[in-house]
Structure prediction request, 252 residues.
Amino acid sequence: MHWMKLHGPGRFGTQPEDVLRDESILVSLILSKVSVQPNKCILWTGWKHTSGYGDIHVADRPRAGKKDLKVTRRAHRVIYELLVGPVPGNRVLDHQCNTKLCVNPAHLHVVTDGQNVRRAHREMTHCRRGHELTPDNVITAHQHHRPDQPLRTCKTCHNAAARDFYHRNRESELERRRLANLAAPEKRVEYRQRNAKKISEASKAWYLKNRESRLEKMRLQREAKKAARAAANESPTPPPSPTAYSESERHP
Ligand SMILES: [Zn+2]
Ligand SMILES: [Zn+2]
Prediction:
């Protein structure tokens, strides 16, 4: 049973629209609960579900000799069925205007759940954490079964997750590698022998790549040392004590 049927809708927000089975009354009640926007969206001003869609209370199937049970349904779906026709149970209504409260049937397309999700994904402008999906903040993954619809992922969130994974697993990964090396040291020796040429080329390339910056760093260090020495000489140090020997004494 749906939680809203269990607790009764009156406990949440405004009272739901008490709509009767009679369609003319239903239509007039619906008309009192909408506001037409300049962009032709017809916004539902009645009860609102926590998911952001409009809700409406309508009579369920009649029961002999008893009052009608009422059920809560999505307002845009009830209005679409009233004005256009029934929607198959396995289909959903996709808001082409991306406005959840809009109940204009012209803005609703009957699609499958998958089509709805994929369109939302395609038109997504921000990730769920609110980063904008600009071209340089997107990682695109090709889908073999849907080559025209690549999956887009937020680069900021992806990198943050990768960094987090790295730091969480760093210690255990290093330990695993250390143990693997301990377990088979001859493998490592054998690897170095097998790849001796590659390794020497890589180290030469590394040396050449970092030569300038290393020289620059050493130069800066030398200058810093020189400056420190100059500062030490300039600072007021006690003058050297006068020599105790006269010239004649030193050179007899
Ligand atoms: Zn609309
Ligand atoms: Zn993000």
